[in-house]
């Protein structure tokens, strides 16, 4: 080997050994959640880390505000722009309020996608829904109706009033509510994905509607709080709590009978898929255009519709027959 070649070889070796951290190969992907401290998002972060390990050279920055507000997320986005991250994958607290901050990020060359809870089309390259919105909307009311053969009053305990995902699911639910004879949706209240506020809102529903037969909470935080409120009120067997939940957080309430069943998609897969999409867009491996597909690694491909959104997979129903098989997973 010539001296030049030897020098070149050792320089290349040194670059691989020591250059890793700052090299152009590296990518920082920020997973921005509605708020910190929510089990659903912590499970999604596990999936993001799994994707990063599979890809190599990817750092995940898991971040979000302390409460589910757009203001808090705008601060987080501005900090990420200052840090010059390569990609932002956000579950949004508001459809429109984040658009200017996210446009600024895109203007600086940052890849921006939303997942779980969407941003308006002007503020992101694409949006990943966990599943079909109409399917989820129908599923949450069907879960309640399945246990109410004689019908009855049901109420919705949602997350924040501006949460894009819950608002769409509730709209979709209301569109098909007429198909469930005798089921009356009497109110929708908001617990902001805070345990204590959700608990008080559930208590308020029980006080306002003495004949209430079910609480539908399409939020993993709200459903646990509602199940606890029903338990504490001595109303197990009278009011069924259902909606969207993590098996790990609801197994005890299935055992007690406070909840007969609930649904969810795999949140680990969702964080994994969002990370894969952000990576493939940032790398230029795929483009976010209507009619095109983007690779989600082991989760397959997502097809983008006219709004450049697509769905990951179908939700799954959990009850006493299977909740214990999943409670240690998510
Ligand atoms: C909470 C959040 C999240 C939603 C789940 C079902 O964790 O509101 O956005 O997808 O519930």
Descriptive keywords:
330 residues, alpha/beta, Rossmann fold, 4-stranded parallel sheet, 11 helices, 42% helix, 20% strand, elongated, binds alpha-L-rhamnopyranose
What does this structure look like?
This protein is an alpha/beta fold and 330 residues long. The chain has two domains: 3-130 and 267-313, Rossmann fold, CATH 3.40.50.2300; 133-264, Rossmann fold (3-Layer(aba) Sandwich). Helix content is 42%, strand content 20%. It contains eleven helices and 14 strands. Strands 2-1-3-4-5-13 form a six-stranded parallel β-sheet, sandwiched between helices. The chain has a four-stranded parallel β-sheet with strand order 7-6-8-9, sandwiched between helices. Helix 6 (164-176) links the parallel strand 6 (152-158) and strand 7 (183-190). Helix 2 crosses helix 10 and helix 5 (133-145) crosses helix 6 (164-176). The chain is elongated, with a radius of gyration of 22 Å. The termini are far apart. Residues 34, 38, 40, 91, 116-117, 159, 165, 193, 219-221, 244 line the site of alpha-L-rhamnopyranose.
The CATH architecture of the largest domain would be: 3-Layer(aba) Sandwich
CATH class of the largest domain: Alpha Beta
Number of strands: 14
User: What's the helix-strand series?
Assistant: HEHEHEHEEHEHEHEHEHEHEEEEH
How would you briefly describe this protein structure?
The protein has helices at 3-18, 39-55, 70-82, 99-107, 133-145, 164-176, 195-208, 220-232, 247-256, 267-283, 323-326, and strands spanning 27-32, 58-63, 87-90, 111-115, 126-129, 152-158, 183-190, 212-217, 240-243, 261-264, 293-295, 301-303, 309-311, 316-319. With 330 residues, it is an alpha/beta fold.
